[in-house]
Specification:
There is one protein chain. The chain is of the alpha/beta class. The chain has 2 domains: 23-52 and 312-455, Alpha-Beta Complex (Aspartate Aminotransferase, domain 1); 60-309, Type I PLP-dependent aspartate aminotransferase-like (Major domain) (Aspartate Aminotransferase, domain 2, 3-Layer(aba) Sandwich). Helix content is 40%, strand content 12%. The protein has 16 helices and 14 strands. It has helices at 23-32, 60-68, 77-89, 101-112, 126-134, 162-172, 195-208, 219-229, 238-247, 273-286, 297-310, 313-332, 350-353, 363-375, 384-387, 414-429, and strands at residues 47-48, 94-98, 118-121, 138-141, 179-182, 212-215, 251-255, 266-270, 345-349, 377-378, 380-382, 402-406, 437-441, 452-455. It has a 5-stranded mixed β-sheet, sandwiched between helices. A 3-stranded antiparallel β-sheet has the order 9-12-11. Helix 6 (162-172) runs parallel beside helix 7 (195-208). 51% of the residues are buried. The chain binds ligand F0G. Ligand F0G binds at residues 51, 53, 100-102, 125, 127-128, 182, 186, 215, 217, 255, 257, 266.
């Protein structure tokens, strides 16, 4: 192409109105919500960057699939189309559909977790960590040191620290039922994992006879980064890279709400027959019959089509570039963000932008509140609110205090993003005036969803 502008490789087919609110209305909404952005009415949000999960726009062909959905209880053709689409990328012997990613996690960890076990991951996401800990097992994060340094430009900051993993397996292999790798590493900035690193993890797992599972929510974005950044991968097709990633693993958990391009869904997949049988037995108790799991036939169709679209190179080029567009603009404006820019989100380093707010007064929460108050943008704290509460009830600073601006897939246009850039830049110039918060009331697990806050002083 002789032109530089990377366009959205689609045009808009159906629109949803956005409602503008005043700053005064937003202040009242914040007070009513206990300063927790999860408690807002989404009608009161102008640009919703809370999550990229289930919030994307489906394509014409996905909506056509919705019409074709066959709701037979057992053996629906929609199930076979779903399984075929999953198998085209992830040829695991058993595919077990679930209503979303955390249901797959819950089933798997119920079977293989338990007190005394330890489950390493580059970084567990919140629900993954909570599902591991709910069984009494320990969730251990072993991302490389570069992955914890927001300014480090390492191309694969999601990589597992193979030395520390090796050490764990040498000393405690019997307690490790599975090794997990999350692609891309969501909690660490949406950063990819290289094929090389996956191969090294695989060989450690082989040496200790431990299965390797992928938390593959954003597998297509990870594969695109491999194509762009890893030596020797540039000329490969993304589906080929994905199949190689799958070939290095024994199984996966998946949220189809991300790189399934669907609004709901997920699956658990594996080669092991015995493990699959135990998981299916639990699936029937909690989700549904194994040919639909927790989903309607129409959802299976939307995912089957979404998986074909998400590995398209034009889509991925646009997707990764538009996230980069936001990140690069914030960097130019002097806003500290995690670098390199990740796949699905831009992460503002709130701890460095608000150095006067100590981690236990939640600089990420303070910044996220200010972005909403000032411009109606809803972002998500990924820091001490989300990860600071320890299983023993004590609280400590999370490794990073980030605010994630997650970009729903195929949903916002460049001018929406230009507005986000303007609001973030304005709030950043006033960062010194932002004060900390304290938690007034919170549950013992996954507190970020429902905690209530008040200004710290
Ligand atoms: N693993 C990762 C890496 C995730 O990012 C998520 C969800 C899950 C598992 C769970 O999947 O939501 O379908 O149950 N992340 C969303 C987010 C919620 O906002 O990043 P789920």
């Amino acid at each position: 192409m002789p032109f530089r502008t990377i366009i959205e490789p689609f045009r808009i087919h159906s629109v949803e109105p956005l409602r503008l609110t005043t700053e005064e209305e937003r202040r009242a909404a914040l007070r009513d919500a206990g300063f927790n952005l999860f408690a807002l009415h989404s009608d009161d949000v102008l640009i919703d960057l809370l999550t990229d999960s289930g919030t994307g726009a489906m394509s014409r062909d996905q909506w056509a699939g919705i019409q074709r959905g066959d709701e037979s209880y057992a053996g629906s053709p929609s199930w076979f189309r779903f399984r075929e689409s999953v198998h085209a990328l992830f040829p695991f012997r058993h595919v077990i559909p679930t209503h979303q990613g955390r249901a797959a996690e819950k089933i798997l960890f119920t079977v293989i977790g338990g007190a005394g076990k330890v489950i390493p991951n580059n970084t567990h996401f919140d629900t993954t960590r909570a599902n591991v800990e709910a069984t009494g097992a320990e969730a251990l994060d072993l991302v490389i040191a570069e992955g914890l340094d927001p300014a480090n430009l390492h191309p694969f900051k999601g990589n597992m620290d193979v030395d520390r993993l090796g050490e764990l397996l040498r000393t405690r292999a019997a307690d490790v039922p599975v090794v997990f790798v999350t692609i891309t590493n969501n909690s660490g900035g949406g950063q990819p994992v290289s094929l090389d690193n996956l191969r090294a993890v695989r060989s450690l797992c082989d040496a200790h006879h431990i299965p390797l599972f992928l938390d593959a929510c954003r597998f297509a974005e990870n594969a695109w980064f491999i194509k762009e950044r890893e030596a020797g991968q540039h000329d490969r097709a993304v589906p080929d890279i994905v199949r190689e990633i799958a070939s290095l693993a024994d199984g996966m958990t998946m949220s189809a709400k991300k790189d399934g391009l669907a609004n709901i869904g997920g699956w658990l997949a594996m080669h092991d027959d015995g493990l699959a049988e135990q998981c299916r037995n639990l699936l029937i108790l909690t989700e549904g019959f194994p040919t639909y799991g927790g989903l309607a036939g129409r959802d299976l169709e939307a995912i089957a089509q979404g998986l074909r679209e998400v590995v398209d190179h034009d889509y991925l080029r646009y997707r990764i570039r538009s996230t980069g567009y936001l990140g690069d603009a914030l960097l130019r404006a002097g806003v500290p963000v995690v670098q390199p820019i990740g796949g699905h989100a831009v992460y503002i380093d709130a701890r460095s932008l608000l150095p006067h707010v100590p981690p236990l007064q939640y600089p990420g929460q303070s910044l996220a509140i200010a972005l909403y108050e000032s411009g109606g943008i809803r972002a998500c704290e990924i820091g001490t609110v989300m990860f600071g509460l320890q299983p023993d009830g004590t609280e400590r600073a999370a490794p990073l205090d980030l605010v994630r601006l997650a970009i729903p897939r195929r949903t916002y246009t460049q001018s929406h993003i230009d507005y986000v850039i303007e609001v973030c830049t304005d709030v950043a110039t006033r960062a010194r005036d932002l004060a900390g918060y304290r938690i007034v009331d919170a549950p013992r697990a996954l507190r970020h969803f429902s905690a209530r806050f008040a200004p710290a002083s």
